[in-house]
Structures are given as structure tokens and as C-alpha cells.
Design a protein that fits this description.
The chain contains eight helices and ten strands. By secondary structure, the protein is of the alpha/beta class. α1 packs across α2 and α2 runs parallel beside α3. The chain is globular and about 40 Å long.
Length: about 230
């Protein structure tokens, strides 16, 4: 299989392993004098990881983080991944948090295009999350432009999208990186917790169709090995 499932006994073990993996990727790129760019999932699950990661002994002034997707809300809104990243990495002195949405929350693509054009090469690591509906980033099942978002042959790095139906906890249009851009990374890590997420992953594999289960476009890519880190 093109992915490796790594289970942990506890959330603490899961968190320590993710931090160790991300620190190693950043250090390797900095040592090779390559740009260190982390493309990160938003949401509540990984935020504690990022807060602890920010305390790592790294030259954060040479590191950029950007979200793999974001909601089209102002960067001062707590629903914005950029807002959450700025909070989580507050102790990482000199780090660059690169938005992929406009500062005022307007539904435009220019910020995302600027972000991806500024970092055209491989990310140091891409961290993905997954919803119980098997979406990842803002590649949602049922979205009208999902096929374009999961097309590995596409030259499109970013998409404007509206989940259908809108998630009640965050009913906003989105900007998302496409599957082919998310996969352009030296490490692809799916970080999930809880039995519901493991069940969703099994359901995705049973379906076998990325249009129904968009996460498959990332973990079943024959050219990329994806690590799946799971804890109860």
C-alpha cells in the first residue's frame, strides 16, 4: 500500500512522534540550505502539536508555515487557520505565517496564488487532517469542483470552494490547495485521532472512490508514501 498506518497507545505519544517528525524535516531542509516550509492542517486536533512544536530549538526565522486550506473569514477571526497558527506559533521567534486567504476574508484566490508562487518547490512536510465525512483540507465530497481538486494531472495549485452542505460549525466558503500541490512535499503526514476517524478511514478504503472519499486522493497516490499517525 502507498501509506503506512502508525498507531500509538496515547495522544501524548502521538503528539511527541509528530513533533519529532516535523523537527527532523525542518532540520534536514535547513541543513541543506533549502527553504523550510510546512504546509499544515487546521482544526482543533493538531493545534496542541503546533504549540509544542513552536518550542523546538530551530532557527524559526528561516521557517515558513502555511495552511493547506482556510476559511474565507478575516485573519482576526478565530475560525481562520492563519489566526490559529499565529497563536500556536507565538513562541517561534521570527517564523513566517503565510496566508492563503485575503486579510479581510474576501473570497479571492490571489493570496493563495502568491503563497504557492513564493514556494514553488516541495514542502518540507504536509500535515493533513480528515473529517468524519472523509474530506481533507477543503476537498469535500459533493463539492462542485472536487474533481478538479483531486486531479493529479492538473496544473492548478489552489481552488475556491464551497462545501455542500456547509459544515454548521464553520459555514464559510474556502480556499484550498489541490491534491497535486499538497502532495508536492518531502513528507505527507495524515494526523488523526479517535475511533471515528479510524472508522472513516476504513470506510474510505472500502469505497475506493476519491469523489466520495477525497482523502483517498492523498493516501492512495502511487508516487507518494503517506504516513498515517493515529491515536485513540
Amino acid at each position: 500500500m502507498p501509506f503506512e498506518l502508525i498507531p500509538y497507545k496515547s495522544a501524548a505519544d502521538w503528539q511527541r512522534a509528530l513533533i519529532k517528525r516535523l523537527v527532523a524535516r525542518v532540520r534536514e531542509d535547513l541543513a541543506a540550505d533549502r527553504p523550510a516550509v510546512l504546509c499544515l492542517a487546521g482544526g482543533s486536533t493538531p493545534l496542541a502539536v503546533y504549540t509544542e512544536l513552536a518550542a523546538a530549538d530551530l532557527d524559526w526565522s528561516r521557517v515558513t508555515v502555511l495552511p493547506g486550506d482556510d476559511r474565507c473569514v478575516p485573519h482576526t477571526d478565530s475560525h481562520s487557520n492563519v489566526y490559529q497558527f499565529r497563536e500556536a506559533f507565538a513562541k517561534a521567534a521570527g517564523i513566517t505565517v503565510l496566508p492563503i486567504t485575503e486579510a479581510d476574508g474576501s473570497n479571492g484566490l490571489q493570496a493563495a496564488l502568491d503563497a504557492t508562487n513564493a514556494n514553488p518547490m516541495h514542502f518540507s512536510a504536509t500535515v493533513l487532517g480528515m473529517g468524519n465525512d472523509m474530506h481533507t483540507a477543503s476537498l469535500f465530497p459533493g463539492a462542485v469542483n472536487l474533481a478538479a481538486g483531486i486531479d493529479k494531472l492538473s496544473h492548478t495549485d489552489v481552488l475556491q470552494t464551497v462545501p455542500d452542505p456547509l459544515p454548521p460549525e464553520a459555514p464559510y466558503p474556502r480556499i484550498t490547495l489541490t491534491a497535486q500541490r499538497l502532495l508536492r512535499s518531502r513528507a505527507v503526514i495524515l494526523a488523526i485521532r479517535g475511533q471515528a476517524k479510524r472508522d472513516a478511514l476504513r470506510r474510505a478504503m472500502d469505497l475506493g472512490d476519491p469523489l466520495q472519499a477525497p482523502i483517498l486522493a492523498l493516501i492512495n497516490d502511487s508516487a507518494t508514501n503517506t504516513e498515517i499517525h493515529w491515536a485513540p
